Amino acid sequence: MTNAHGDFIWYELWTSDPDAAAGFYGGVLGWQATPVEGSAIGYRLLGPGQAAVAGLMEVPRDAAAAGASPRWLGYVGVDDVDRAAAAVLREGGAQHVPPTDIPGIGRFALLADPQGILFYLMRGAGEAASTAFAPDRPGHCHWNELSTPDPAAALAFYGGLFGWAPGDAMPMGELGEYRFLVQSGRTIGAMMPRLPQGAASWRFYFGVADIDAAAAAVAGHGGAVLHGPAEVPGGLFVIQARDPQGAAFGLVGQRRPGG
Asked: Cross-referenced InterPro entries, in alphabetical order (predicted)?
């Protein structure tokens, strides 16, 4: 794996209806869904053209039995999955899937941070660098946002685990602050206090060419726009949305003239 320790290298959608989800994201982001040959769980690759940025699968049976709902999850690349997983447990996190090999793909584990928010660790088997997180490429992830009940504890946890550093912050009044996250000198996302009635989770924002057209596509394909389009620094606009199966996600892009 050529990505640096602490890079986001993959994204994954757990859904209750893989066929419907593939159609939805195809309509909104132009993603193609490609079945993985020989996959016992019907895993599919999602992405624009030949570039895969995410995986698609049905909510795992044991997770569904425990109450898990459709959601997006992120994979963070690490130098040593076993060592990183042990560090998560030492710092008060939990392990849902122990370090496990996927032949020809890599080694992964599914963990939760001390606030109970799920994320994956992975060490890829190949030498090619992941471009799943690529803020300059439409259809790829442009922003990784953590909503947590304890931002200070989360910052210490992820900083110690991945080397993420705190960047600038934007005040949110009584709600606290929106704190940027910096990895190897590059801003990769942010963390914020969980909003009232909001979920503690990661939300991933995927890039689009026209935010208004994308918002219309979300609604037109059975999803819901929860917030936005709202302007953010850099002259971009974001929406927060929910797909027809209930998974939360975000989109980011420019507003075209007349939008």
From this structure: Anthracycline_SecMetBiosynth, Glyas_Bleomycin-R_OHBP_Dase, Glyas_Fos-R_dOase_dom, VOC_core
CA angle (48, 54, 56) in 5-degree steps: 110
Does residue 37 sit in helix, strand or coil?
A: coil
pLDDT in tens, 88-97: 999 999 999 9
Nearest Cα residue to 259 out of 208, 212, 207, 209: 212
Give the pLDDT confidence of 205-222 residue by residue, as tens digits.
999 999 999 999 999 999
Burial environment of residue 191 by CB neighbours within 10 A (0 to 12, 13 to 18, 19 or more): buried
The predicted-structure confidence for 24-69, as pLDDT tens digits, reads as follows 999 999 999 999 998 989 999 999 988 899 999 999 999 888 889 9
Read off the pTM: 0.96
Closest CA to 43 of 52, 34, 31, 53: 34
The token duo for 125 is: 């088997």
Helix (H, G, I), strand (E, B) or coil at 75: strand
Handedness of CA 68, 148, 178, 55 (dihedral sign): negative
Domains contained in the chain, CATH given: 8-124 (3.10.180.10), 141-253 (3.10.180.10)
Does residue 91 contact residue 114 with C-beta atoms inside 8 Å?
A: yes
Torsion of CA 189, 68, 246, 34, to 10 degrees: 80
- CA atoms lying within 13 Å on the CB side of residue 132: 22
DSSP structure class, residue 133: B
- Taking the C-alpha atoms of residue 243 and residue 224, their distance in angstroms, rounded to an integer, is 7
Instruction: Calculate helix-pair angle for 81-90, 151-162, nearest 10 degrees.
Output: 150
